[in-house]
Automatic annotation (TrEMBL):
GO terms for molecular function: 2 iron, 2 sulfur cluster binding; metal ion binding; oxidoreductase activity. It comes from the Bacteria. This is Nicotinate dehydrogenase subunit A. Its EC number is 1.17.2.1. Gene3D superfamilies: 3.10.20.30, [2Fe-2S]-binding domain. The keyword Transmembrane does not apply. Keywords: 2Fe-2S, Iron, Iron-sulfur, Metal-binding, Oxidoreductase.
Length: 155
């Protein structure tokens, strides 16, 4: 396993880590930078718990090689509202709709919905369902999640 210095911009902060270039970005975020919001779920990009934004696009960090980020800007749930404790409209909508249950999957839903609403600010129900397909929530809060995404779209 050959390692190299890799520069990352995460939530507006520059970091340098020494890692195997093929290591998943998720591991760099959690293990090297100590972040806790992208979560390890399945490790196969099937559940969404590890979702982050790279240059505004929602990506599954568990299968994204850390070196592939390049000069891209990584945003985690902690930086979604722009930092300084400011909430993004999707975070506010999830709270207002009382979506959270266990919370394990919320990172994926919030990050995916935020990127989706940026690209499609006035979605219909079918578009929302399509955009969020593939995400998993064992608590069954899907109806609340739909209401929250629609609320955020109106905000």
């Amino acid at each position: 396993m050959a390692t190299k210095e890799i520069q990352l911009n995460v939530d507006g902060n520059n970091h340098v880590i020494t890692a195997d270039p093929e290591m998943p970005l998720l591991y760099a975020l959690r293990d090297d930078l100590g972040l806790r919001n992208p979560r390890f779920g399945c490790g196969l990009a099937q559940c969404g718990a590890c979702t982050v934004h790279i240059d505004g696009q929602a990506v599954r960090s568990c299968v994204t090689p850390v070196d592939s980020v390049g000069v891209g800007k990584v945003v985690t749930l902690a930086g979604l509202g722009g930092g300084n404790g400011k909430a993004h409209k999707i975070q506010t909508a999830f709270i207002e709709e009382q979506v959270p249950q266990c919370g394990y999957c919320l990172n994926g839903w919030l990050m995916t919905a935020a990127a989706f609403l940026e690209a499609n600010p006035n979605p219909n129900d079918g578009e929302i369902r399509d955009a969020l397909s593939g995400l998993k929530c064992r608590c069954g809060t899907h109806y609340s999640i739909m209401r929250a995404v629609k609320r955020a779209a109106r905000a």
